[in-house]
Write a structure and sequence with these properties.
By secondary structure, this protein is an alpha/beta fold. The chain is 26% helix and 26% strand. The strands form seven sheets. Strands 12, 13, 14, 15, 16, 17 and 28 form a seven-stranded mixed beta sheet that branches. The chain has a five-stranded parallel beta sheet with strand order 19-26-20-21-22, with helices on one face. The protein binds flavin-adenine dinucleotide.
């Protein structure tokens, strides 16, 4: 480990004798000679190792070169958040000298998490702090070579960041060492973005699911099983359902087409969620919820989409986009909504290279000291304007209506008014986009005066509301005219059961629930989504008991 790096308390705690005594019945002793490998970078499914005597070293391997990060002596233990999900190890662990270790299996680790609150907290805190250390120091098995002018580079950076997977990013536009790396792996500049996985596998412009496969993000998903509960979508509502379901003993699988967090994951700062007076970034909130769900044993598949539903009778079968299928006795639809796109003929060619649908630190990095435009008058547009004004030279907020008061919370309007870097343009609509490879300028028009304006902005954020992700349900459940899912009292006429009315949040099919933004009449807020996801689990129990 680099010298002088201060780690927060609890990152590498030493277990005392009493704590080790509590662990002894749950583990198996392993005796190792000096330099024996305990587990290698890329290995999955091994347990946590507590050092009983001797010591082990943790080694980072990049392009075949080893760096010893740290040495753990007696009382220390290995592992980080990957340990909870059985994902592949990001580092190699090797006996530093002849040592005796106690291996605690993943199943027993989960038991400790659930039954021994004090010891569980020691492990969980250490795992989270270690993951933060790995991300901050780009330690791990992934190198991404890309360009700030490539939409696929942005996609992969966002995918890895939102999945909390540490990676080293090398930008061909800026990094002078890049040629050596490209030569080492025999990569042409035209191949980028390129993802190097565990120093050996070179993926040329991989899809998110290929990246997930390479890093083993979906290990342990049991396609042959019938789950108690499948949750489709890992936004705030789906993650809440996963936490409540798994913590109450249900066998839960979450299917997420991208990365945990949903729309909230693209928010730079959520300030109205209970318990976070200073606000919290959507990514932070999602990362915490994701770990919490895994702590209780929920399985979470990322970069895999529900493509269709077989709903003739329970167990319901969710068909996945890769051709697989998973079954469950109950289902919570938490697939939320996606951004509405502007009706501009060449919009697609600038998506990711000048046109964005979220304003997180990844997008902010490319806007530093530049002019940016944001389209939208809602809270998400307001948050983005305030966040981007901290890095951009000027932020134009383009709204179709006469002002912000009808669509945005007062606290955001006050901050926008007080921020000299933000200019609000009312009655304004985008007419055309222009650029060669990357967005170079945006043309807009004042619909009241007819005046036209060309802005040399290379960064346009579209935050104009959302449509529900319900296409995959292929008509199984009743929806309203805008394709949001009807629930509870709204489905009574189509309800098939005589013996009971639908539960609140239950769709027109018994045992299938809809929560969060995908539900007709929902509040479109994080707290409401979390509340509905948690509540639905109570009804799931009742359906399972029927
Ligand atoms: C930029 C922005 C800022 C916001 N700020 C705030 C705020 O400050 N406060 C607030 O209260 N609310 C805020 N909101 C609103 C809030 O984020 C949403 O209400 C909330 O995220 C809804 O949660 P959800 O779980 O219902 O759906 P979503 O967040 O939409 O999550 C749905 C998830 O399902 C996945 N999915 C979709 N289809 C499939 C499929 N077929 N298979 C598998 N997975 C699928 C998606 O990838 C997504 O991850 C903001 C929204 C945005 C966009």
């Amino acid at each position: 480990m680099a010298e002088n790096v201060e780690l927060p308390d609890g990152t590498f705690p030493t277990l005392d004798k009493a704590q080790i005594a509590r662990l002894m019945p749950l583990g198996e002793e392993r005796h190792l000679a000096a330099h024996d490998i305990v587990y290698d970078q890329g290995d999955a499914e091994h347990g946590v190792f507590v050092v009983l005597s001797g010591s082990v070293e943790l080694v980072n391997i990049v392009n075949g070169e080893e760096t010893v990060l740290m040495v753990h002596g007696a009382g220390k233990f290995t592992g980080e958040v990957n340990q909870l999900s059985g994902r592949r190890s990001l580092v190699r662990c090797r006996a530093h000298e002849a040592s005796t270790l106690l291996e605690i299996s993943r199943a027993n680790l989960q038991r400790i998490m659930q039954n021994d609150a004090a010891l569980g907290e020691v492990f969980l805190r250490a795992f989270i702090l270690r993951r933060v250390y790995l991300i901050t120091n780009s330690v791990g098995d992934a190198v991404l070579i890309g360009s700030s002018n490539s939409a696929d580079t942005l996609r992969l950076r966002a995918f890895l960041s939102r999945n909390g997977h540490p990676f080293t990013y090398v930008d061909v536009e800026k990094d002078s060492d890049v040629q050596t790396l490209l030569d080492h792996f025999d990569i042409r500049v035209t191949d980028i973005p390129v993802l190097i996985c565990r120093g050996e596998l070179v993926l040329r412009n991989p899809s998110n699911s290929e990246a997930a496969e390479c890093f083993g993000l979906n290990t342990g998903i049991d396609e042959g099983a019938v789950y108690d509960l499948i949750v489709v979508g890992a936004g705030p509502s789906g993650l809440a359902a996963a936490v409540y379901g798994a913590s109450e003993g249900l066998k839960v699988l979450v299917i997420e087409s991208n990365a945990p967090g949903g729309q909230a994951g693209s928010s730079s700062r959520i300030e109205n969620y209970l318990g976070f007076p200073m606000g919290i970034s959507g990514q932070d909130l999602a990362a915490k919820a994701f770990i919490q769900a895994e702590k209780f044993g929920a399985q979470i598949a990322v970069a895999r989409s529900a493509a269709a539903l077989k709903c003739a009778k329970p167990p319901y079968a969710v068909q996945l986009d890769d051709g697989g299928s998973v079954q469950s006795r109950t289902l919570i639809v938490a697939s939320g909504a996606q951004y509405r796109r502007l009706n501009l003929p060449n919009l697609a060619q600038f998506e990711g290279v000048g046109v964005y649908y979220g304003a997180t630190s990844v997008e902010a990095q490319v806007c530093s000291n530049q002019e940016v435009a944001i389209v939208g008058g809602g809270n998400s547009a307001g948050q983005a304007a305030i966040f981007l004004s901290t890095v951009a030279k000027r932020v134009y907020l383009l709204v179709r209506g006469p002002g912000l008061s009808a669509t945005m919370s007062r606290y955001l309007i006050s901050r926008i008014e007080a921020c000299p870097e933000i200019t609000v343009k009312t009655f304004t609509e985008i007419e055309a986009l222009e650029g060669n490879g990357h967005l170079e300028r945006t043309h807009w028009r004042n619909t009241k005066t007819g005046e036209r304006h060309t802005c040399e902005t290379q960064h346009l954020f579209l935050m104009t509301g959302a449509c529900p992700n319900t296409g995959w349900l292929n008509g199984c459940v009743e929806m309203d005219s805008k394709q949001f899912i009807k629930t509870g009292a709204d489905v009574r006429e189509q309800w098939p059961l005589q013996r009971r009315p639908p539960f609140m949040l239950e769709t027109s099919l018994p045992g299938i629930f809809a929560v969060g933004d995908v539900r007709a009449g929902s509040m479109k807020r994080v707290a409401a989504a979390v509340g509905e996801g948690s509540m639905a689990v109570q009804f799931v129990h009742q359906v399972l008991a029927e």
